[in-house]
Amino acid sequence: MDEDFCLSVNQREQIVSTLLGEGIALPHSLGLQARQSVVYTVLAPDGIPWGEERAYVIFLLAISKAEYQATMGIYDIFVELMQSRAALQLKNCPTFPVFIDTALEFLQQSVPG
């Protein structure tokens, strides 16, 4: 990621907050500027000011043009986590390994069959 990417993320946030609710934020750039698609995950037990609210779990999306189609499925994962009400438990995970285990458990419960 470079300075242009960071500037674009800030510009995107100025348009409308990327805080989805329940303390989960999904910031991303205005365009497909990343060289490689990556999701950076930040757990903030005390929360980080996010507009007038606080974010406890932040998924910073960096999506490359070349990998756009392949990475769009990640939005479905975030929707599943929000619909399963996992956010309430995810933001209280004490460590990243516990966070991963909790997220996977919710996602497995949401898969039919």
UniProtKB/TrEMBL annotation:
<feature type="domain" description="PTS EIIA type-2">
    <location>
        <begin position="1"/>
        <end position="110"/>
    </location>
</feature>
<dbReference type="Pfam" id="PF00359">
    <property type="entry name" value="PTS_EIIA_2"/>
</dbReference>
<dbReference type="InterPro" id="IPR016152">
    <property type="entry name" value="PTrfase/Anion_transptr"/>
</dbReference>
<dbReference type="InterPro" id="IPR002178">
    <property type="entry name" value="PTS_EIIA_type-2_dom"/>
</dbReference>
<protein>
    <recommendedName>
        <fullName>PTS EIIA type-2 domain-containing protein</fullName>
    </recommendedName>
</protein>
<dbReference type="InterPro" id="IPR050661">
    <property type="entry name" value="BglG_antiterminators"/>
</dbReference>
